[in-house]
Amino acid sequence: MSNVGIVIVSHSPLVAEGTADMVRQMVGDEVPLAWCGGNGHGGLGTNVEAIMGAIDKAWSEAGVAILVDLGGAETNSEMAVEMIGEPRAHKIIVCNAPIVEGTVMALWPLAAWTVADLVQPVVAPHAAPLPSTTGLAWTPALVAPLLLAAVLAFPLLGPFLHILLVAGVEVVRRLIARIIAGAREPEAIV
Question: pTM to 2 decimals?
Answer without folding.
Answer: 0.58
